[in-house]
Amino acid sequence: MSFLLLLTTERSAIAIAFTLLFAMASRVSVDPDMWWHLRLGEYILETGPPVYADAFSHTHAGLIHRNHSWLAQVVMVGLWRLAGHLGLTLFVSLLATGGMLFLYRAGAGSIYAQAYVLVIGAACAAAFWSPRPQMLTFFFSAVLIYILFELKHNGRDRLWLLPPLLWLWGNCHGAFIIGFALLGAFALGEWTNCRFSLGQSRVPPRTIRKLLWITLLSLALMPLNPLGIEVFAPPFDTIGIGGLREYIQEWQSPDFSQAQSWGFILLLAALFGAVSASRRRLDATESILVIGALCLALVSGRNLSLFAVVATPIASIHLDEALSRKGWLIPRRISESPRRVAVNLTLIALVALGAILHVEYVTSEKTVNRALLLNFPVGAVRHLNASPLAGKLFNSYNWGGYLIFAARQHPVFIDGRTDLYRDFLDDYVTVVSADSWRSLFEKWDIRIVLIESTSNLAMRLDNAGDWRREFNDDLASIFVRSDQ
Questions:
Q1: What predicted TM-score, i.e. pTM, was given to this entire model?
Q2: Where is 476: in which H helix or E strand?
Q3: Cβ–Cβ under 8 Å, residues 301 and 326
Q4: pLDDT of residue 243
Q5: DSSP structure class, residue 261
Q6: Quick one: 220 exposed, middle or buried, by C-beta within 10 A (0-12, 13-18, 19+)?
Q7: Which residues lie closer than 8 Å to 368 by C-beta, 6 or more apart?
Q8: Angle CA(110)–CA(115)–CA(118) in degrees, nearest 5?
Q9: DSSP labels for 381-450?
Q10: Cα 458 to Cα 214: distance, rounded to the nearest angstrom
Q11: What local confidence, expressed as pLDDT, does residue 162 receive?
């Protein structure tokens, strides 16, 4: 049992830190888009191809939808069938913890200093940790940063991993374009460092050329995908949807009055403080990566996790340099006394037990049902499924994904697949916010409406003589045309 003596306090701190990060990422799976991702995953397992004529909405029935997240959805539905909400919670927690582990490996310094940065980085990234394919984008981008920083700071060439990594990323989420952007920014930064002799760690020109060739090879391999050459379309199509930034919160600039944005502020302050204390300027690569990720995060809140991926290891590297310059370092121990090992094992066991109890609580039937009742029209869907109501449905955008999964006999008006609906978001907003709802209801022959009980549209329908409230609870109401 002498190997237990290797369980030093620092190694114990690493285990405890990542156990706490795992617990931090474990939460009730109630993301609105989670449901349509699960339903599309089921559809792929049932029918096969991720390119299909839409059958989930009546407004876009038959329109070809290219599902760029097909592989992630298959993984998600597999975990759902295996373990329900626990499976999806583990999907998020393992990817979040794994991503932070790669960022830890990409950084520098003792676990005590890095833990400070990691917790802040996790608080920034966690704003959009949820059971969706974008969790894989967080994980893959962290792996990519690790590969590049290992090359830059330690001279370890693992560039051969890039083609399979990017190919897998391209089959899991349309944001794989972020990977190529990171590669381009890194190559440009390292070329600038070499050209003007900037920074303390530089990648030689020969390796930069190798990186560019491997990037081109990765691009060439991307069409080996069920979507073919169309795999490149979703990232650019999504950017062109104007309604995203106008109507959908995660695509808008961060609201710094909301708690989910405070981690970003703390990480930005930690990065600035670490760079200032180290007295070493950001080199070209670090500057391009930080400025680029910062601009993207300020434009769209969903990019906060990308900023965390870039800023966390850079902040830890500069913090380690500042502590080294001042001599504030804790010597690493090779082994511990049996008594201290016993204390370390006890602490790890207690933290692990707490994490297990936390996961058990957030995935318990009672906790999940309470969260579902607070966030989704569970009662209204139960009534809808049990009633003989027929006709086209108008639904709240926030509940479209849940209805695709839970009310399958009623195709939706709209849901979270913005790449399918595109500018149709304008029609939806017109209905819920203007008096012209009647003309659009006539246009789409709407017979059933499922919306928030306190919405303006609910008040209008209450005052309309040809609509009646069929169901009502504190969250949702069902209205039907009076002739039904």
A1: 0.95
A2: strand 476-481
A3: no
A4: 65
A5: G
A6: exposed
A7: 28, 29, 85
A8: 125
A9: HHHHHHS---SEEEE-GGGHHHHHHH-TTS-BS--S-HHHHGGGHHHHHHHHHSTTHHHHHHHTTEEEEE
A10: 56
A11: 98
Asked if 131 and 87 touch (Cβ cutoff 8 Å), the reply is no
CA distance 452 to 454: 6
* Confidence check: pLDDT of 145 > 90: yes
Q: Would you call 76 exposed, middle or buried from its count of C-beta atoms within 10 A (0-12, 13-18, 19+)?
A: buried
d(CA 73, CA 91): 11
> 């003007």: which residue's tokens?
196
Q: For 188-217, what is each residue's pLDDT tens digit?
A: 999 999 999 998 889 999 999 999 999 999
Q: How far is CA 116 from the centre of its chain?
A: 22
| Token duo for residue 28 | 């009730």
Query: Distances in Å between the alpha carbon of 341 and those of 10, 11, 349?
Result: 11, 11, 12
Handedness of CA 83, 84, 85, 91 (dihedral sign): positive
Q: Name every residue whose Cβ is closer than 8 Å to that of residue 438 and which is 6 or more positions away in sequence.
A: none
d(CA 245, CA 250): 8
The answer to whether residue 237 scores a pLDDT higher than 80 is no
Q: With CA atoms as reference, report the closest residue to 6 among 110, 14, 20.
A: 14
In this structure, what token pair is assigned to residue 429? 């907003």
User: What tokens were used for 385?
Assistant: 């499924």
